[in-house]
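Chapter review: from sequence to fold.
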Amino acid sequence: MSPGERAAIADPRAWRPGPVPPYRAWWLLAGLLALTLIVPFVLDLVLPEADADDEVVLSAEGFDWELPVEDPATGETMICAADMESLSGAAYNCGGARIDALAAEGYRDADRSVRRAMRALSQAAVSDFADVEVHWDGRVGVAVSPEEPVIGVAMIDPDARGGGAGADDPDPMLVAVVEGDDAARLVAPVWRALGGGEIPAEARALLSTAGRPEVGRGGEDAGQPGRPDRSEVPDIPDLSDHWGSFYDAAGAGVRHAGVNRAGVNRAGTAAVAGEVRA
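The token string follows.
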């Protein structure tokens, strides 16, 4: 124990607190903290947004696909902004549409794999694409969702290199998902990038129905088949009188059975009482 500590114990009045930090240090610390919080916000307001200067190339991790999407207006590779938040790492924001791609291998059902890729890559509110049909033209197919503007374009490539599938597994498949209000316009370039020629007439007719469930119910495109209108409920006849008569008859039968049972019970009781008395 130091002499100062012994003196403090002997005389508590001898203890003195340490020096108080100057107020300038507190203000300096608060200023540095405020600067740290404000600078990123100011930079976000001042710096211009990144321009769309990325070439749209369809690819998938683990495979050698590098398929550029041609812009119909210029004949060159389409330029869009890469979506860095995509889980696949191969997504692009092209104004009113978004393009993303995913590889499938070792699948059992090609149509089901296309629908699963649409569910995995789509940012729409639809959680299930089970009713979406895939229309194939050789090894290239297209699927259109009537609930949301989501379109899947698939390519089965026997020459693809990469992945972990075995020799006996199906050929790898690349699925590109195009979604957004302008999705139908970009389907043809994506279709050609995946090796397709002319989009089948049946699939081309469905492109106008993407995200329009009302089409086919007597709407603009009356020739297209539509889903049944579940809001139309058939008239159900009023059976209250019928069921009332039924319940009355059933109640009468129960009461009749109760009377018979009571009579039998009374007769049996009287017989037993007579035997006891005898």
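Two observations follow directly from the output. The longest helix spans residues 240-277. The longest strand covers residues 98-104.
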